[in-house]
Amino acid sequence: MKKLFLIIFTLSFGITIFSESTKELRERIEKSFSSIMTFSATFNEKIVPVIGETQSFKGTIDIARPCSLRMEITSPEKELILYDGEIAWLYLPGEQYCLKYRTGGEHSLSRIPGYILEPFENLIVDTLYNDTDFIFLKLSSEKEDDFFKSIELKLSKDKILPSSLTFKDKAGNKTEYNFSNISVNSNKKINFTFTPPDGIEIIEK
């Protein structure tokens, strides 16, 4: 009986320690993220569809609180994605047209700022753990009609900054961003608005 009690006590104590450690880790992430006003980086994007070939892209990303986004894809073709909190734009210079989403919040990419800067406020935490170099967050949306089924964040353990972001939609397609050359709270001016060039067709969604 004493041996059984000791085993139960040990297991209970171990679970308590793990819970406290996870709570402390979450608080450390929240504290670090709360100080980020802007986030800039270069990225490699990989789209892995359930059916079809994997696609790869390169570019830069800029994010500013509360929800502004600017993504410039430089390879294989140029694209510009902008969101100012109200309107989302997708500009394809090579195609001579742009897409305008008046309900910008409905566009899947417009949710990236919230996922990166405030993941705990926008998502449900399913898994949170760390190893020697990184912190791993697996999250899911609170909304049943959300485009993404799950979101994964990998953070550098030393600076507590996102090094990768992975989305999986309900169909099973996966989109992964790997970030490098990361800077936060820089003084560079970022334009989150868009004025279509003359002669460009505007398609409203």
Give your account of this protein's structure.
The chain is α+β, with helices and mostly antiparallel strands and 205 residues long. The protein has one domain: Lipoprotein localisation LolA/LolB/LppX (outer membrane lipoprotein receptor (LolB), chain A, Clam), CATH 2.50.20.10. 21% of the residues lie in helices and 45% in strands. It has three helices and twelve strands, in the order H-E-E-E-E-E-E-H-H-E-E-E-E-E-E. Strands 7-8-9-10-11-1-2-3-4-5-6-12 form a twelve-stranded mixed sheet. Strand 1 (38-48) and strand 2 form a beta hairpin. 20% of the residues are buried.
Sequence-ordered SSE layout with sheet pairings:
Layout: H1 2-34, E1 38-48, E2 55-64, E3 68-75, E4 79-83, E5 88-92, E6 97-101, H2 112-117, H3 119-122, E7 123-130, E8 134-141, E9 148-156, E10 162-169, E11 174-184, E12 201-204
Parallel strand pairs: 6-12
Antiparallel strand pairs: 1-2, 1-11, 2-3, 3-4, 4-5, 5-6, 7-8, 8-9, 9-10, 10-11
